[in-house]
Amino acid sequence: WVGWFGFNAGSAVAADQNAGMAMLVTHLSAATASLVWVVIEKVKFGKPSLVGLVTGTIAGLATITPASGSVGPMGGIILGLAGGIVCYFAVDLVKHKMKIDDSLDVLAVHGIGGATGTLLVAFLAGVGSGGTGLGEGVTAGSQFMVQATGVIAVGIWSAVATVVIVLVTKAFVGLRASDDDETEGLDFSHHGESAYKL
Length: 198
Hints:
Helix content is 71%, strand content 0%. The chain contains eight helices and no strands.
């Protein structure tokens, strides 16, 4: 969470009010999404989980990042709310319905959260900071189309790059550890470390 302040607020390249606002909205979005995730789990399962709370935090951080230099406090809260809800259901869709092994929820939280923030910044730029945030003559609809084009381009690029990386990796070192290595534990078999001293 604290590290995320570094690249959101640090993007201002100055210790000024822009950096301060980016840091504030980053915090508000992360806190809001954490609470959203906890509430959804409480309603759905009767109790929240620590993993859910932390996953909600990351959802809020991923969602605010593309907008952190363009929204005010209310925009940060709205993005945290949206990120918490959208990413919660994206995790359920990707992991449970599509049965994709999405390690650390990279697609469902980082990818979907980042795309959500990228799309919503067209409507939330300046919300809560006293301005529209959009350039003169730019409408939210036209900005949304620009943002959507970017999201689609990044999605295609990521898919193609992932396929290339997987094929190259598979050709040189393979994609799976042996059954024996998995049973023994990858910490020891691949890294020579013992994960737990029991």
